[in-house]
Design brief:
heterodimer; A: alpha/beta; Rossmann fold; 8 helices; 12 strands; about 30% strand; globular; B: mainly beta; nine-stranded mixed beta sheet; 4 helices
Chain lengths: ~250, ~375
């Protein structure tokens, strides 16, 4: 079982700044097994998004020590696309506009790259339309340029469309709940739950707020402060955070 | 109908003249020639050389709403194009060509110029006219290894909707200098799409002015310069009438040692041009070291009573965030760069509105990008 997991061991990460590298992650340890949903919660600036981006291989971040394995494959030395092919997916907090590239072309290109072969056309178009409908996006959405002129909610729903179609082994959702109204939050959460319900996929849900955890039930909750995990528990930990906030760890840490 | 027009003295746009003698041979010190590599171009400014016209290949069209007649050498100028440099003046004087009149609807008409003989100087002066209320697209294609002077004179009648596409897909060794000039009629729409993908040196001067109020000019350009190629696109929009609109959007990619592009966008808003709106933009994507793009936007504003006037120019490398986003979905780096460049150009090429031409051009862009396959 363990070698099929997403295993993060003593991960240290620097971010490039104008004044040189600055350490952000300071020894992260976390194992997500197939079928598990983990929530990472923490205050602004604690390094949650850095964890998401450095796992995916963003060039701004440098892994200085530690290891990340997925299905036994060491990810830290791999290119961004190789990590995706290994089974990792990052739903971004700020999805990027790609003018002139249609959603349908982007989805087909990504699916072809991940699978190593183009999907059969007719079945694929049907799947795309179903995934769009599941996010309450109409077929015309596929003809629009990726993220260009999308509302905040459309950007997030487009991320979940990709999650459902690419169906990676592990999904990191970086503040997917931010900027969503209550209806969009429900639609997005249902998509994540459909993905997780397959039973052999893992979810790492990064959030500030407990709101999304009413829709997506985590098996484990981790409190993230100053670049590492300071406390772990079950869903009840999220509920106690609602009462007390992060103050005690932020204080203890400073 | 004559509307008053003031005279504005400006260094940005020399006064034109049909008389070759009014245009001295450029030395490279002139503002308008300072970017152009003039070495080896002496024959282009020699007005004693005999020049033949580039022939025309098959002449396909869709739609019946046009007529066309051959113009003998020197019959080209129809009063709409006043040469602003010596090359254009020689082309106007010596160039033969064709007069295309759109009257009614012509979905598209293609003028495919033949390659000509390598090294033999040629000159053409095409005249395109859209009669009032007409609707059509004219596509001019260039290929081969000519040393070519090519003017295009365009008259857009009142209420007409005219698209002119000029594709410079020359072989290496070709040089093409010329002037395109359009006069936009009352409430007419003129769309001009320049696509420059091949040749050693292409330098096109595109001028637009208005015959009356309410005209709209959309000037689009796409260019892809490889090692040693110099592609220069100079635009001048003269807002000489009230309530006109102009929109300029040129985009280029450059790759290889001494790949060079120059974009100059001049917009003049005369005192009488009240209520006009203009925006011009040039974006360059530098794909490799050793390439250089110059972008020079100029706005001369003689009245403040306008809706808006703006410009922007940018030259940069790939956006890391775009590449990261695409790669995070499993798309390899070379494929991600190809998608970004295709998207960058697709935004313009889809304005042509003729799918088979858009596909052809996208295929040519793909060929340009093939260098990246091994990365």
């Amino acid at each position: 079982m363990t070698n099929r997991s997403l295993a993060i061991r003593d991960l240290h990460v620097d971010v490039a700044t104008e004044t040189g590298p600055k350490p952000i992650l300071k020894g992260v340890n976390l194992t997500v097994n197939p079928g598990e949903v983990h929530a990472i919660m923490g205050p602004n600036g604690s390094g949650k998004s850095t964890l998401a981006y450095s796992l995916a291989g963003h060039p701004k971040y440098t892994i200085t020590s530690g290891s990340v394995t997925l299905d036994g494959t060491e990810l830290t030395g791999l290119s961004v696309d190789a990590r995706a092919k290994a089974g990792l997916f990052l739903a971004m907090q700020y999805p990027v506009e790609v003018p002139g590239v249609s959603v349908s072309n982007f989805l087909r290109t990504a699916k072809t790259a991940i699978d190593g072969a183009a999907p059969p056309l007719r079945a694929w178009v049907k799947k795309v339309n179903e995934a769009l409908a599941g996010m309450q996006l109409d077929d015309e959405f596929a003809a629009r340029s990726v993220n260009e002129g999308f509302s905040g909610g459309e950007k997030k729903r487009n991320e979940i469309v990709q999650l459902e179609l690419l169906n990676p082994r592990y999904a990191i959702l970086d503040e997917t709940d931010s900027g969503l109204d209550i209806d969009a939050l429900r639609i997005v959460s249902e998509g994540v739950n459909r993905y997780a319900a397959q039973g052999d996929r893992g979810v790492l849900l990064i959030t500030h707020y407990t709101r999304i955890l009413r829709y997506i039930r985590p098996d484990f909750v981790h409190v993230f402060v100053d670049g590492h995990i300071v406390e772990e528990g079950g869903p009840e930990l999220a509920e106690s955070l609602e009462e007390t906030g992060y103050e005690r760890w932020v204080r203890a840490d400073n | 109908m004559t509307l008053p027009e003031t005279t504005v003295i400006s260094h940005l746009h020399p006064r034109g003249s049909l008389d070759v003698a009014d245009h001295p041979v450029p030395t490279g010190k002139e503002e308008v020639w300072r970017f152009t590599p003039l070495a080896g171009l002496a024959d282009f400014f020699d007005d004693t050389l005999g020049r033949s016209a580039l022939g025309e290949g098959p002449y396909p069209a869709r739609g019946q709403g046009y007529t066309s007649e051959v113009l003998a050498p020197g019959q080209g100028p129809h009063g709409g194009l006043t040469p602003v440099d010596r090359a254009a003046a020689i082309a106007a004087r010596d160039g033969a060509g064709r007069h295309i009149i759109i009257d009614g609807v012509a979905e598209w008409v293609r003028v495919g110029l033949e390659p000509g003989q390598p090294g033999v100087p040629t000159a053409n002066h095409l005249v395109i006219e859209a009669r009032p209320g007409a609707d059509g697209t004219v596509i001019i294609t260039h290929h081969g290894r000519a040393r070519h002077l090519g003017n295009v004179e365009i008259n857009v009648g009142a209420g007409a909707y005219l698209t002119v596409v000029s594709i410079q897909n020359w072989d290496r060794g070709a040089v093409h200098l010329g002037q395109h000039e359009a006069v936009v009629g009352k409430d007419a729409t003129f769309r001009h799409v320049v696509v420059t993908l091949g040749g050693d040196l292409v330098r096109l001067q595109t001028n637009v002015s208005y015959a009356s109020t309410g005209g709209r000019a959309e000037l689009y350009g796409v260019y892809f310069a490889d090692a040693g190629q110099h592609f220069e696109h100079r635009l001048f929009v003269d807002h000489n009438r009230p309530k006109g609109t102009s929109l300029v959007d040129y985009r280029g990619a450059l790759q290889g040692e001494h790949a060079r592009s120059v974009w100059v966008g001049d917009v003049l808003i005369r005192p009488e041009a009240r209520g006009i709106e203009t925006y011009e933009s040039n974006k360059n994507l530098i794909l490799t070291d050793g390439a250089r793009a110059d972008a020079v936007p100029n706005l001369e504003i003689e009245t403040g009573e306008i809706i808006g006037a703006g410009h922007s120019a940018s030259t940069g490398r790939f956006d890391d965030e775009q590449l990261f986003y695409l790669q995070s979905r499993g798309i390899p780096g070379s494929e991600a760069r190809r998608l970004v460049v295709r998207g960058f150009f697709a935004t313009i090429l889809t304005k042509i509105g003729v799918p088979e031409v858009e596909e052809l051009l996208m295929g040519l862009i793909d060929t340009e990008l093939a260098f990246d396959k091994e990365n």
